[in-house]
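As a warm-up, study this chain.
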Amino acid sequence: MKRRGLIKAALVTALATSLPIAAHAQEVKLRVANWLPPVHHMTDTLRAWADELEKASGGEIAVEIMSAPLAKPNGQYDLAKNGIVDIAYSVAAFQPKRFWKLNAAEVPFAAPSAEAAAVAAWRWYEGNGFIEEDTSDTKLLAFFAHAPHLYHSAVPLTSLADFEGLKIRAGGNGVRIAEMMGAVPVGMPPGQTNEAMSKGTIDVSQFPWESVKGFRLDEVSSHHLVIPGGTYAGIFWMTMNPKTWDKLSDAQKDAVTSVSGEWGTRFLSQMWDEQEAVGNAKAESAGNTITTMSEEDTAKLFEMTRVFADDWIAKANEAGLDGQALMSNFNEIAASLK
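Now compare it with the structure written out below.
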């Protein structure tokens, strides 16, 4: 009996000792908002990033990629800030007051790829202290970008002159570029583009190649006009609810950090670059006409759009910053990544 009592006591002690370890290893579930349609590669891209996070956490973090949008693209930041979801992402241009500084990274012809644009933006934004200034109410995890835009149309499109009077679905800097070319910019969520083109509401859409598959543009666009060097790459942000961050253990925070910052920025953007070939191939398989803008017209477009850098510098100066120094700093970082 005495021996049995000792064995029982040892088992109780072992169980009690193991309880704090089990509690420490308790799984945390993070919900990630997704507003793009399931056919868009972002669903798989988010899953790939989530897999890296789960692996880094040693199984302590599980990630759910949500399938139904909870808000429009311009409402995604508030979803994370207010704790409706744990992590959200969207286009910086949809939050122009908060992320206006990122327009420096969206100056036309600044970067030739999603990866170069996003990594340059992250290094520049972090290096100049803008993360603390602009996103102190959340935990900014990463930036990413799409590749530079081209134009997809239901009508023949081969030169700058062809844009006159056409209705273009555009956003961000693309609105002003459309106006410069004599076109009529039309604002709408990206997911509505296919329907708008099929109904004739718009003639042209401004997107990178990846959107040919993501928004089924090959079904409604028979012509694609490529701009050598691209127009501009749009910057996206990804951020976390601050209370979610605070509740994570130190080990879990380390896991999140390991897939964030420049690493996460590069990982997500590389996946966007990889989708360019997919979209291009889809347009080719549909038998669509692909035209590259002439050197002469490309040079004209470059000169027309130089005003974006000048205007950003002026706005930064008005905000009490050294606009020229900041723009030069970004260009130096971007040039080192080309």
